[in-house]
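User: Hey, my collaborator sent me this sequence without any context and asked if I could get a structure. I don't really work with proteins. Can you help?
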Amino acid sequence: MQVEMKMQKKDKGLEERKTWLKCLSKYVKPGKIVEFGCGSGFVLEVLSMDFADSIIVGVDKSMQRLEKVVEKRLKNVIPVKGDITQDILPDRTFDTVLFVGSLHEVFSYSGKGKVRDAFRMAHNVLKDKGVLIIQDFLKPSSKLVEIALKNEETRRRFLRFANEFQQRKVKFESTNEGVKLDIANAIEFISKYRSPDEEDWKEEMNETHFYLTEKEFRDIVEQAGFAVKRSLYLPKSENWWVDVKKDIEFNFEKEYKWIQLVLTKK
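Assistant: No problem. I've predicted the 3D structure and written it out in structure-token form, which is a compact way to encode the shape of the chain:
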């Protein structure tokens, strides 16, 4: 059952990411492209096909993930091991820089200061007319919401989340039907609720996906020397909530957002 759940979660994620990458590719400037935090190369694989005449660099600190990039045998992709918050590539080299779902990990494990470092580094490696594209989660503006927990197992799982989540203290008030808490923590719990096994759950407890509001994103990138040219919310698949709503009742789906920012150097 756990394997089946994990595969279902993976299939939904892949379907969604393919849709998002269509939104991303049309803003990529060909030439020299770098993805910071490339992981095992899902985005690199798409870029390699869409921009066959470009030189594409994938940077990640995990050698294990980079080995998976190498296994894909992408002819125009160069994997590089390195910390995406440090200066590891030459200045004014790239036409396009990408952060796709990687900045929330920088925030989770190293803090907001390192996110600023990542933007500073991206500014340095971009050519004067280069483009920076970000796709990542958005933290909703703070407000209290209520979620109904439909069974005892779901309630126990919430209490475990509130006790084990490492990124911030989860304050909540018990109600007859469930709990009342800040919307950012509610969304965080709902997004992690599907975790199919103990290993995945422990990893999720160390990471926050919803870490910066849209205003905070804009402030940080502008301070780093970028101008926002385009901003859009990425579409969610219609079946995203189906399995969760069997156990949790809530009414703030529209607050569950992913953003794409297209930026240029000032």
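In plain terms: The chain has nine helices and eleven strands. You can pass these tokens on to your collaborator as they are.
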